[in-house]
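Quick question: what would this complex look like in 3D?
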Amino acid sequence: MARIIAGVTSSHVPAIGAAIDNHRTSEPYWQRVFEGFERSKEWIAKAKPDVCIVVYNDHASAFSVEMIPTFALGTAAEFPIADEGWGPRPVPVVRGHPELAAHIAQSVILDEFDLTLCNKMEVDHGLTVPLNLMFGSPKEWPCPVIPLAVNVVMYPPPTGNRCYMLGKAIKKAVESYPKDLKVVIFGTGGMSHQISGQRAGLINSKFDHAFLDNLTKNPKKLARMDHLEYMREAGAEGVEMVMWLIMRGALDEQVDEVYRFYTVPASNTAVGHIILENRKKAGKKSATKMKRAAARSKVHRVRS
Amino acid sequence: MAAKPKTEKEYDDIPGTYVFDADRSRRGYHLNMFCMSLMKAENRKAFKENEAKYIEQRFPELTPEQREAILKRQYNRLLELGGNIYFTAKLGATDGHPFQHLAALMTGSTQQDYADLMLRGGRSVEGNRSRSGASAGKSKPKAKKGKKNRG
């Protein structure tokens, strides 16, 4: 049986991708950001997921204003890197997992979530920057990736509650897949930022920290937050944090927070990152319990 | 849990913000498609060679207001006329500007001042929540530079 072992959230600021592509990661400004992901790379190297589901949004790359799907699942065998105006980012092509993706599509649609399916789709920085942050810059991505693109560009995006419930449907879908696969789900985007209008530059760290706290402990509270509150408090573009709730919905109710990182700014955005692990199922020796307790006691919170 | 039908756009109460909703998406369709066209190098070249000709020939459906805002690089006005920031950013990129250049234009500051603002932790939400002051923030919105200082 396939299972979701953990969830990761991370901002997907395009300037982070540009810093990687232009070899500027050791500059002090960028070092502050990248250092926050060093432990995460170690974590994911140990976790060794067989597949990652990456929830992200397209930024006028694969979808323009011609068609605006609310939830678009990538069911292709591979996803080329989009040219966002400066040539495609020099990162590996993203390999998909068409069988698991088709299984998720079938399960989730019959669970009344009307996904759009994409057998051809280019992916942009929204998906590739979090992969870089977690996996570095390998020649090939270490595992297949199933992209789930969410409309957060045109108002209204799906509600936080809808996202949270979709996450639950994804969990059910993955757990009914017959092959033994370890899956990690990514929620990307955020945290607080506004990049448009006279209010551009808005950052609300208080909101962000509360969001991170609730993401771990009280996601249902976040699922009730309406779009107006996101836009008012976390910036017009901060509303994209609803995507994190898909990740959270796909995890168990009780999770262990094993890592957290927060820094301001990367370009115009507050960078937030968290790793949440599902607890091992009961009945598996007490060593598991001890491990879990140890994990909780040493949550690394990095703030710069 | 059906939400109450919204008869007015509550989000218009957020100062200095143009929410890209279905109405703006429809009004700005050709404007955003023009911006999309700039993702191709040959189009960027053709546009830079003769901007007015490019938009008149290829995007005749643009309104005179949209055309003017493009040519004058009035970024807030573009948002008001249905442009979306992820699309209008492509116009800025065509000019070779980093995003913070656009942000500085939209906020009526210099690029350096804007970059410094971000390094200091960004623009505070205090005083920037609401035009009416009716929201949780209660504080009056800060004087809006945008009206006089569009673009």
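Answer marked as accepted. Residues 85-94 of chain B form the longest helix (10 residues).
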